[in-house]
Amino acid sequence: MTPDRGTGVWRALPWSLRFAAAAAGCALVVAAAVYLALRLAVLVAPLTLAVVVALLLTALLQPVTDFLCRRGAPRAVGALAGVFVLLVVLVVPVLLMWQAVAAQAGELPDELGQGWERTRDWIASTFGVSDRQLDAAVEQGGERVRKAVAPNAAAYAMGAVEAFGSAVLALILVFFLLKDGPAIAGRARDRLPEHSRDRWSEAAGNGWRALSRYARGTVAVAAIDAVGIGAALFIIGVPLALPLTVLTFVAAFVPVIGATVAGGVATLVALAAGGPVDALLVLAAVIIVQQVEGNVLEPLIMGKALRLHPAVVLVAVTAGALTGGIAGAAVAVPLTAVVHQVTRTALRGRGDADVSSA
Asked: How far apart are CA 146 and CA 153, in angstroms?
């Protein structure tokens, strides 16, 4: 087929079909680029995780550095102060958890044993299960857990080493981003084409402000979850209430899934230690706190500009979990929020007033 004949055939097609073909071609090119980028990110997963965590922590700690710089401190000193604040926030809960576990270590086996006996009696009376059947079910479940964990012991150890290396790398990156972030952004801006420099700089600024606001809002929401559920655990008298409170705080950084998992763990501990009544009380407290947080407090803290639709959040969390496990699920939503803000600003050619004013 000659070029002229091919062009004639193309022009003879209906306009809607030509548009659909062009759009499909563009979509395939974008999808291929995204797929390759995700594959590369997964291949270097520890590095990807370190960079993303460093960006989130930098967005969270930047007010500390900026506060000191506005009062005349060198930027390196402000960056060190931000890293010091981060270390204090990480170390203090670990020390408190260690003390709580050590203080309850002597009483915990007896409490768990008594709670398990009450739970066995309740299961037997409610479902008509004999002690022999219950023991067989428990033994079978323990055997499955041992078979699942034992072959992967080396993989778990390697994962722990990679996680530690990623944490150290993220900490170093946080210092350099706090110290040299504005200079890096300025040099990146100078390398953009002059005609689109202002538009893309504004889009990047809106994306960074969205990330900062998301990080601060997530910390606030996680703290509310932890305080509410932790208070309920202390009032009910659940063992290891402080470690469970810290677990709730950490798990809240994974939207939707994290809070559910942390509430389930707290309920199981209450069931094992105090029986079904305590477990139901803890479950009720978890549901109430999460409903208040999700429907009332989170919209006020996050704001409408960063509040993604629940369907988008679920898709982002699922995609992140499939590509990067728990870490991918944790960083998927903030990355989605940043991409949303950047693309919206770039396509409109102007900033989002709501995010810019945050």
From this structure: 10
Closest CA to 262 of 239, 235, 230, 301: 230
Cβ 358 vs Cβ 59: under 8 Å = no
Give the type of residue at 7: T
Q: What is the mean pLDDT of each run of 10 residues along the chain (358 residues)?
A: 58 78 88 84 80 87 89 89 87 75 65 69 70 71 61 66 83 91 82 77 81 83 86 86 83 74 83 81 87 72 62 76 72 80 71 45
Residue 215: CB atoms within 10 A of its CB come to: 20
Listed residue (111, 128, 131, 70) closest to 270, CA to CA: 111
Judge whether 221 and 333 are in contact, CB under 8 Å: no
The three-state secondary structure class of 252 is coil
Sign of CA dihedral 64, 70, 75, 78: negative
| Gyration radius from the chain CA atoms | 26
Dist. CA 270–CA 223, nearest whole Å: 21
Q: What is the pTM of this model?
A: 0.71
pLDDT at 175: 92
Nearest Cα to Cα of residue 211 among 82, 71, 328, 335: 335
Cβ contacts of 250 within 8 Å, gap of 6 or more: 222, 258, 262
What are the sequence ranges of the domains in the chain? 43-183, 196-358
